[in-house]
Amino acid sequence: MSSSAILEGVRPDAADLVGLRRAAARVLLGNWTGSSTVPSRTLYPHQWSWDSAFVALGLRHLSPRRAQRELESLLGAQWDDGRLPHIVFDAATPEGAYFPGPDFWRAGPFPGVRTSGIVQPPVHAFAVWEVFRADPAEAERRGFLARAYPRLAAWHRYLRTRRDLGGHGLAAIVHPWESGMDNSPCWDGPLARVDPVPPSRFRRRDLDHAAPGDRPTDLDYGRYVRLAAHYRDHGYDDASAPHAFAVEDPAFNALLALSELALARIAAAVGADPAPHRRRADEVVAALLDRLWDASSGLFLCRDLRGGGLIREHGVTGLVPLAVPGLPVAADLLRTACGARFGLGRVHMVPSYDLTGPAFDPARYWRGPSWFNIGRLVHLGLLEHGAAERAAALRRSMLRAAARSRFAEYVDPLTGEGHGATGFAWTAATVLDLIAHDPPKVDEVGQNS
């Protein structure tokens, strides 16, 4: 595509958007396996949980049916206790292509389906509802909502009951990977208590496909492996596992609240009672405000359930609650987003960590780089709370970054340089979703079934 207009910061014209849309569609088609979409053909060759939710939000603009199938594939790997695993392993992919693979996790809901044993942020009900809205007639014909609703209700019940480790109405994460923001500085304190597995005892495959400076360190990985192995060796039983790492994460719980609101709409559409879901959403928001809101920094902070207090690190996880409708501290969050810590409107997209923080690194994974899925959630929050001009500027920034970086996994917030994998699925999906909010006034590419 022609990207000169995008890179100069002006609004892309219709031809630019059509070209970018076609390129994004090619990424998703290229990452499709026949039943789901891999984040990256090289770096992440399986199905990831919250990736699939964001992918479905983009796919709905190409093929609502395929978006439904994306989510159904993930829901089909649900465990009996209700959890949705963070990875569903592709049986056709060689065992050694990704670490830790299925032989490490030794997990799955039933024979023939192999998964990890941990979870990721619960954005799924929100995605299901938005996919339904893209083509209600097709969804109704396929029974999409009727089949998804009980699975989503069980997923939320698992988080509400088995994962309320603090006893105050918030779901806890028991591994940094569960946050989706793997090596955020927010986890440095809790992770310091974990005895790492020596690098000689595992083989990282991520470094075969990405620069070491873009990825978590060997020390980080050693701790990730230790935590995962302990959870596995306790049968993934939340009641009996030691949980050396147990954290209440604002983004995880904000997405649970957002998805409870979506589940209320789904319940009403299938003839169930929506009121319990609305009440639970309100309860989660109240607990977020009570447990994780820090007025002095104008941000939600993480709470370390083993260390006994709020974690004084300012990660983008604390901005994600902006996406929740009616949030009473939205104006404070907006001021923080636009301030020195996150520089909204002055940097590329939304940095994953405090620009002024001591651990800020513009290239290393979640320690500073800007991510497209998080940018989209902040964009939704800006629209929800009346900051339309800032939302439009963020949208332009995200489209520029995607065009310039060839749909990179994430970008340097200071330079816009792409890092990690290229041709990344949720980056392409986010582009499709953003373009759909302001579509070009020309004929577009055809639908893909």
CATH top level label: Mainly Alpha
Oligomer kind: single chain
The percent of residues in helical segments reads: 40-55%
- Low-confidence regions: 1-12, 441-449
The number of helical elements comes to 17
Series of H and E elements: HHEHHEHEEHHHEHHHEHHEEEEHEHHEEH
In angstroms, what is the radius of gyration? 20 Å
Give the mean pLDDT. Answer: 92
Classify the fold: give the CATH topology.
Answer: Glycosyltransferase
Q: Name the CATH architecture.
A: Alpha/alpha barrel
What is the distance, rounded to the nearest whole angstrom, between the alpha carbons of the first and last residues?
A: 24 Å
Categorize the overall geometry: globular
What's the main sheet like?
A: 4 strands, antiparallel
Strands, total number:
13
Query: Could you tell me the strand content as a percent range?
Result: 5-15%
Domain count, please report it.
Answer: 1
Which structural category fits the helices and strands? alpha+beta
Spatial ordering of strands, largest sheet: 5-6-9-10
Secondary-structure map with pairings?
Blueprint: H1 4-7, H2 14-31, E1 47-48, H3 49-59, H4 64-75, E2 87-88, H5 102-105, E3 107-110, E4 113-115, H6 124-134, H7 136-142, H8 144-161, E5 172-173, H9 176-179, H10 188-191, H11 218-233, E6 247-248, H12 250-269, H13 275-291, E7 293-294, E8 299-300, E9 303-304, E10 309-310, H14 330-338, E11 370-371, H15 372-384, H16 388-405, E12 410-411, E13 418-419, H17 425-436
Antiparallel strand pairs: 1-2, 3-4, 5-6, 6-9, 7-8, 9-10, 11-12, 12-13
